């Protein structure tokens, strides 16, 4: 309710600025005033406030100069217009909800949340830890890699992300759920020397990416 009223107030402020600018043609000014009064009457209705009866130009009817019958008829017309507006918005909301539900039912989407706590593996150098989803029957990966750079000290390279290594594998649709098996695969790539036992400084290399280990879980 608050968001609806706030949105209506923003509209009224904008329309008021247009009216006060004095740059609108008479026909557009007349239509805009009708739109303003309709918005006000609609807002009063959803807030359970009194309904203000108006003439065709949107001006408030003076009960001292308007007969009781005219006031009653004007009140009936205004009430009918507001109710039609309420039913129209209710119908639009129902259609939007139905379309959303139909779209979700037609193309369901699921996600897998992963929280990396630690890498218990003695590597000896910096490493890259890559996590992804894999279909063992089709022998192919079905997701992108979640990459974590791990230091030789046994901590993430980005120390600010310590205890905050999280990822979400999204857009897993009905096709993925129909797969017989989905494996969660973790690959470790060592980044450093060609050989760990290479202690000769003349042959020492750095920054080379070498496969080091892999692990998987077929419980998905």
Strand content: 15-25%
Overall 3D shape: elongated
Order of helices and strands: HHHEEEEEHEE
Task: Please outline the major beta sheet.
Answer: 5 strands, antiparallel
Number of helices: 4
CATH-assigned fold name of the largest domain: Immunoglobulin-like
Could you report the average pLDDT, rounded to the nearest whole number? Answer: 81
Q: How many E strands? A: 7
Structural class: alpha+beta
CATH structural class of the largest domain: Mainly Beta
In the CATH classification, which architecture of the largest domain applies?
Sandwich
Distance, first to last CA: 43 Å
Rg over C-alpha atoms, rounded to the nearest angstrom: 33 Å
Characterization of the model:
The protein has 220 residues and is an alpha+beta fold. It has 2 domains: 105 residues, Up-down Bundle (Substrate Binding Domain Of Dnak, Chain:A, Domain 2), CATH 1.20.1270; 110 residues, Immunoglobulin-like. Helix content is 38%, strand content 24%. It contains 4 helices and 7 strands, in the order αααβββββαββ. The strands form 2 sheets. Strands 2, 3, 4, 6 and 7 form a 5-stranded antiparallel sheet that branches. Strands 1-5 form a two-stranded antiparallel ribbon. Helix 1 runs antiparallel to helix 2 and helix 2 packs across helix 3. It is elongated, with a radius of gyration of 33 Å. It starts with a helix and ends with a strand.
Give a concise summary.
Residues 2-205 form the Dedicator of cytokinesis N-terminal domain. By secondary structure, this protein is of the alpha+beta class.
